Structures are given as C-alpha cells and as structure tokens.
Amino acid sequence: MPGKRDWTPWMKKNRAPVLCTLGAVLLCCLQSGASVPDEVPVFTEEPASVVQKLGGSVSLRCSARPALANISWRLNGQELLDGDFGAVLGPNSLYIPSLSNLTLGRYQCVASTGVGALASVLANVTAAKLRDFEPDDHQEIEVDEGNTAVIECHLPESQPKAQVRYSVKQEWLETSKGNYLIMPSGNLQIANATQEDEGPYKCAAYNPVTQEVKTSISADRLRIRRSTSEAARIIYPPASRSIMATKGQRLVLECVASGIPTPQVTWAKDGQDLRYVNNTRFLLSNLLIDAVGESDSGTYACQADNGILASASAMVLYNVQVSEPPQVTVELQQVYGGTVRFTCQARGKPAPSVTWLHNARPLSPSPRHRLTSRMLRVSNVGLQDEGLYQCMAENGVGSSQASARLIIASAVVPPRGKPPSIFLSPDKVLREQPPVRPGPGGAMLPLDCSELPGQVLPAEAPIILSQPRTGKADYYELTWRPRHERGVPVLEYMIKYRKVGDPLAEWTSSSISGSLHKLTLAKLQPDSLYEVEMAAKNCAGLGQPAMMTFRTGKGRRGKIDPPKTPAVPSPSLSPPEAPDKPTVSAATETSAYVTWIPRGNRGFPIQSFRVEYKKVKKAGEDWVTAVENIPPSRLSVEITGLEKGTSYKFRVVAVNVIGSSPPSAPSKAYAVVVGRTPERPVDGPYITYNEAINETSIILKWTYTPVNNTPIYGFYIYYRPTDSDNDSDYKKDVVEGDKYWHSITNLQPETAYDIKMQSFNEKGESEFGNVVILETKARPNQPVPSEIPDYSPGTPKDGVPRPGDLPYFIVVIVLGAFIFIIVAFIPFCLWRTWAKQKQTSDMCFPAVPSPVPSCQYTMVPLQGLALVGRCPLDGHMTGPHGVYPVNGECGMNGKPHHLPGRQQEEADCDMECDTLLPQTVPN
Fold it and tell me: Which portions of the chain have biased composition (kind: Pro residues) (predicted)?
C-alpha cells in the first residue's frame, strides 16, 4: 500500500526519537499512576449521625483524599454492599430510600489506598420516636402576686428531643410570648404573675422528625395569692440538682423565688459572686452561660432574700459537670529489634473508651499484639504489619481518632533470625501523624505544631468582607479572607451566629475547611439583626475572633403587591445621600480595606461608589480618587499603593443618574505601619451582656483579648439613639483600667440605643467591636397624651430633643386644632337653629314637634376614635363614655364639661320653641 510504503521509511528514519518519546510518556504515566496508591488516605468528609422516622430516607456522606481512594461502608462492623437492605452506594455517599429496623445501627466508611486503610468515626442511624406522657396528678400551683410562677412539663422520652408547647387561655404557645417564657428545660415561667394569669395550663410534646404531637394527661392550675408579707422561698427547683453540660454548649440554670416583697435572687459559684463575671448573663432570676468550658464546672448556689426571714430553705444548689468530646494523639516508637510500640493519649470527660485498628480492622489481644487503652505493642514485626494504625476514642459526647503509619524498609523477607528494618514514617521521623478530630464538615484537622520549626502562634482574626446589610430575608452570604497566615496554613474556620435581642437565641455553630472563604447562613428571620463571631484555627489553636453584625431584609409575605409605576424624573429629585463614615482595616503592608454603609438614594438606584483619600500630614492636600465605578453590590474595596509610614483618611461618594452625593464624613486617620506591629490596640472589646436596669440606665459587660500583648489604658463606650443617623449624636463614656463592666446613665425612657466600644492607649484607639441595640425601660406611670405638659415641639423640658416625644407633640397639636374648630362651630350651630325656628314662625308653619331639638355633626375619626359632637337642648343629657361633646372639652373620666351659661341658653331655647308652637284648632 502506498501509505505503508510512505510510513515505513519515515519510521525507520525516526525510530530512535519516537521510542524515546513513547518511553518518557510511559514512564511518566507509570510514575503518576504509582504515586496515587502510595498516598496516605485522609478523610475530607465523614458521616454524621442521623435521626429519621421509619420509612424515611437517609443519606450519609463520606469522601477522602486522594480522589482515587476506594470508599467502602460497614454496618455494625459488617461490610455493606450495594443493594444490601435496599442501600444504594455512590462514589461518596450511602443512600437508604426507606429506613427499616434492618438498616438501623452504626455506620462507618473506610478509605483505602495502596498504603493501607483508615476507618471513619462511627455514625449512628436511629429511629425517631415519641413516647406517651406518664400519668401525672393534677397540681395546684400557688404564687404570690407580682412574682414569677413556674409550670413544669415532664416531657416524655423522645428521639430527637421533643419540643414543648403550652395551652394558655385556649391558645397554644410554641415560643416565648409576652410575660410567658418557655425555658430550654421545657418549663413555662410566667413573669410578674397577676390575677389574669390564673387558670389551667397544659403542655404538649412535639417531635420535629415524626411531626407527632402528644398532650399531657392532666392540667396544672395556677392560683395567685395576695398577702401583705411572705418570707422568700425558692419554688423551682424544689431540691438541689446535678447537671451534665457539654463543652461549648449553652447552659441555663433555672431558679425562681416567690415572696412579698419580691425577693432578690443572687448567684454564686464556689462562693464567688457571679454578678460581675464576664461569661455569665441573667434572664429574670435565671443564670445563663453562653458557651460552657472546663472552668465552669463546680457548685452554683442560688439564694433568695426579701428581708423578711433569713432561712436556709431559700437556697438551692446546682452541681455542674462539663463533659468534653475526646481528643486523641498517637505516637509510634521502635522499641528494640522487631518490636514497635504505639502510645495513645485520649483525653475527654467522661474518660473515653479506646479501640485499636490496623488498616481499619479492629485488633484483639494475641501473642504478637498486646494492647491497652494507652498502648499497643506489636512483636516480631513482618511485612504483614505494614500499614495504618488507628486509635479511636468514644465517650458518649463524641468520637475522635488519630493514626500513624508503619513502613517496613525491607522489600523482601529478611534472613531467619534477623528483624526487618523499620521506618517510623515516610520521612523517617513521623513520631505521629498529626492528631486529628472530625469537625462538623468531616475534615480531619491536625492539632499539633511539634513538627514545625520555631514558635507558631495561633491564626489571626480573619477579615470579614460581607456587607452589613442584605436584601435577602432568610439567608446571608458570609465572605472573608485570612489576615496573615505567617507561613502556617489555616486548617479550619469556627463560625457561630445568633439573633440579637432574643435572650433565648442559641448560637448556631459551623466549622468549615480553611481552604474555603464563604459560608451561607440559612434559616434566618426577616428584618432581624444578627451577630457573627468567627475565628481561624491553625495547628497552634484557635486565634482571636472577628466579629460583625448584619441585618436581613424585610422580605415579602402574604399577597404580592402590584408593581408600582416607575418614578418619573422631576426637578425635585437630587443625588443620593452621603454614605456613612467609612471604616478602615489593614490588608497588606501597602494596602487597606475601606468599608462603608450607604444611605437613601432619593428616588433613583445607586449606580456606583467612588472612594477618595488624602494624606493627613500635608496641609492643603487635595482629595484624590482611589477607586471609582465600584458596583453598588460591593460595600468594601481594597486601596493599594499606599506609602509606608504615611497616614491617610478616606471618604466615599455615591452616584446615581442625577449625580454624585456629597462625600461622606472622613474616616479616622489610618497609618501604614513600616515593618513593625502597630502599637495602638488592634481589636475592640466584645460586649457579652447588656440589660436595661431602669428607664434611664443600662449596664454592660464585655471581654477583651489583647493582640500581640499590646497594653491598653481602658475603653471608650459610644451610644446614641437607634433612629439617629448622625455620628455627632454619639455620646462617649470612658472606662479606665481593667474594669469590664459599666453602667450608662441619664438615658431617655423607652428609647432604643446603638452601643459600641473601643479599647485605647496612648497611641490611639482600636477598631470598634460588636454593636448591640438595647431599649431602656418605660416609665412606671406614663401619662396619656392629653396629660402631657404643654412643651413646644423641639424644646423639651430638659433641653434635649427626644425622638419618642414627637408623636405626643403631634397628638397635642391635632387635638388642639379640633378643640378650636369645635368651639368656633358652637355659635354657628346655635344661630342656625334659631334662624330656622324664626323662619318657621314668620311663615306661619308649625315647628316640628320634637321633645329634644338638636343640631348634630360628625367629625373625622382620629386614630381610630370616632369623635361625634352633639348640641343637646337638654342640659342634663350627657354623651356616652368616650364621646367628645360639642364644646370639645373632655374631663379625665370621659364626661363632658359644659361651657358656662350653657344651661341658661338651653332653657331660653326651650321657652322660645314653646312660643312658636301653634294653638290647636278644631276641624
């Protein structure tokens, strides 16, 4: 064939280069193919425990590196194949279409490569259930009026834990409402109980998985007592208790007292007063600890006293023990000859049980294997002992595992009597594979820095890039970037968030891989303020947290409003309002992040933003545009090219189709540091507790962790009314020294305040910490609008305008206008009546025989109250309660006040009407 004749000479001529090329390609393929099986498998996601109802579907996830690692599954220690019990096995998942008794149990996935096999932590798949309420006697609960009452609910056994509902006045309560407070224990606390709260109360249990609801058999009846004096007594708990709390979770210790006068409840831990401890808060008389730690174990005493009688019965004790999930480290050592030893240090509370595995198979004691909870000794080591060894620990709170690899150096069996050569690791020094634990995302995270040179510090707080406001009503996109990794990678990010202002809001926690920089916070409530804390974790541990607050959008519920007619440009429209004063944070040695919040757009959407800056120390320096045409969806930008050792100020301009807004207020001076740590504080304090003491005072508690051991002199506290948009409205309190609580006084009653804090020293102030919103209490006896003194608008008695006074001023002005109109209308009404009667008399027509002639008029309703005016001729007739009389004057009890001389005028009117009546003429 011609093609063959052409190919053969070319092949002969170029045989050597072709063979070399093919050989190189084949060698590369073999090397790459051989390198994958030699990789140690590492889990990137492990299965998590699941509670599901029988018949429901279950999905378990498991993945590992390298991507070619083989994933298999076990159920109760036995290998599970595709199709067994209806299970469907995917590349990185296990799916059970219909849960049955056969598929309940403990699941485990195994990742295998040529090196060996690793077993994941165990995941329990259990069936959801809800038992019936136990028979219980009807109880009569008595409490002194004005005190807190407690209705106990003994929830039945449930998997998962049942949610409590209460029947209150023919209405089922699922969450706290008004003075009804549903505690995490399931108890109902009724604050400031009155006679209106008397009656029967019944509780129900709801299983969120099976969606079953079961109601208690009996109902408790609450009775309110009225007594002049009663010694303080604790009505809940009835006796001292022991509680086991899990580390990192929220702890609520309930203590409710009753007595006349109302008792004062105090808490102490191991004899120390808890009122000024940073990590504690109080809800009514209950004690709250947001995240318990090892130091929170101990004896807590709740004591009630109202000065009537000092009695030992007015004290109750809680014995709190904090449990911890296990943490595991493994060390591999060559002892002598052909013997190796593995040591396992498993910490946790209660003490965890330990299981040893070799290539994901449990080990049992044998002549060659001696094992305890702390040590594994392998004698007469041979090639069959190569692979991965795991120490797996469980203690009921959680499970964890760590592993080490054993490598036999000899490729062949050594001569008889000569032990094989043993490598402790691929790099000859693997004393231990970095101890690992599964996070919520399933990633296995190293926890030790012993293999890294020099001193390794915890990771710095990440820089949060997300906007503080979002238009989404039920979720929020949280984005960030690491600040400085210092050569040590971030292993994971610990993130928690909760709703601000809800005293029972639980922290929702997440843990994601250090390679990710985005997380969606889901299931949020519309138009709500949330606080976020996040910290980066490297092998040295958890670093300083970064904190922020954000507000969700209002969303749309119910019927959808019809589309509005688009606005037509008019000469009255103007450019947008100036954005808020920007904040500046460090990015790199020559750049900084500028963040801002926009204000109103005055009718047209904002199209872009522009950031300007100028140098501080140069007099007469003009503002220079740093970045322009920033999309409206971005409220943060990195400004690059800054000069080291120079201070800058930044401002922001918003742009729409009408034009540019006025520039925002300039930011604080930002100094570009030259190769050294800033001497001013970096992070602000974090407000952990806030409460309105009365109508004019607020108490704050906070924590502060210095960065780089920077000393501080104290703290600045800034506060202003929430409805104010002017930064100049902020007032500042200074707290010097290491005091971590402060009381803000001279506030306005029933007014919400924004509160934020900074730390400071001689070099300047830190960035602001978290922002809290708190409302002061209302006055005990607030006057109705008609009793408000006649102050002119804008000039209240204390000389400081209050936002809460504006509605009262409007009501006073409107009522005054109505009174003026009514008074002016009275003479006109009387004149019209007289004129009609006179006209009738002049024309010789009989007047209408009416016992009570009157002139009536109806006025426009004001705020839902219909004002009906009447002019009765009978001076003894009064309008109904709540109806304004003709003269427009109303007393405190709702009865009309007549004008002077009114009765005489009405009498004259009666006489005149009588004279106008014609004489009776017979037919």
Answer: 563-577
